[in-house]
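Following up on my earlier thread - several people asked me to post the actual chain instead of describing it. Fair enough. Here it is, all 86 residues.
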Amino acid sequence: MVHCDVQDVRPEIEIGVPDKDGRREVLQIHTRGMPLDENVDLDEIAEITHGFVGADLQSLCKESAMRVIRRVSLKLRVTRRFHRKL
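Reply from S.P.:
Thanks for posting it. Predicted structure:
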């Protein structure tokens, strides 16, 4: 005997993949407050990320920020070591 409770039947809401404008909006949200280089073009990124959903774009923004942080951190460590030797 199968028991089906009304609470077990939940409506599914399908959210499609965002178009270019939607991806640009998502990118703007996830880069808000980030100091972006003048060469960063969110329109271009939105253009080349066809098929990305919000979570993909969020991960892209976070990973990009982490790469910059690692690069800057490495430069600071190298600079500090150099100045200590002087």
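The two ends are 82 Å apart (CA to CA). That should answer part of your original question.
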